[in-house]
Write a structure and sequence with these properties.
- By secondary structure, this protein is mainly β.
- The chain contains no helices and 11 strands.
- The strands form 2 sheets. Strands 2, 4, 5, 6, 9, 10 and 11 form a 7-stranded mixed sheet that branches. It has a 4-stranded antiparallel sheet with strand order 1-3-8-7, with no helix packed on it.
- The protein is elongated, with a radius of gyration of 15 Å.
- It starts with a strand and ends with a strand.
């Protein structure tokens, strides 16, 4: 699975920005997709995720401001960032998770794939 993110850049506080991520390769094996971010000197943390079913989860810090969506037909995942804050400044990484199952449907393996990241800078 290969991931390529785009859409990063400079945005002002209160503005909006949309990140996009295109998946290619063994896309049929992808289950969950998500966005993570890493600010300078900090660990990489999850921002939002979307399951194959469409179920979404968000970090508390972005709830109500960011929206993750997924287009399975186009093999894309998006992150709509509304009202960003300076503390949202980070490198954003697209993530895809694949799962393998046995003949009974039990999960036998999970693997994470990462895109190269796109920088988002929020100015005050």
């Amino acid at each position: 699975v290969q991931l390529q993110a785009s859409g990063g850049g400079l945005v002002q506080t209160g503005g909006s920005l949309r990140l996009s991520c295109a998946a290619s390769g063994r896309i049929e094996s992808i289950s969950d997709m998500g966005w993570y971010r890493q600010a300078p000197g900090k660990q990489r943390d999850v921002v939002a995720s979307v399951a194959l079913s469409g179920y979404t989860t968000y970090a508390d810090s972005v709830k109500g401001r960011f929206t993750i969506s997924r287009d399975n037909a186009k093999n894309m995942v998006y992150l709509q960032m509304n009202s960003p804050k300076p503390e949202d400044t980070a490198v954003y990484y697209c993530n895809a998770q694949t799962t393998t199952r046995d003949w009974l449907g039990a999960i036998t393996g999970v693997k994470d794939y990462w895109g190269p990241g796109t920088l988002v800078t929020v100015s005050s």
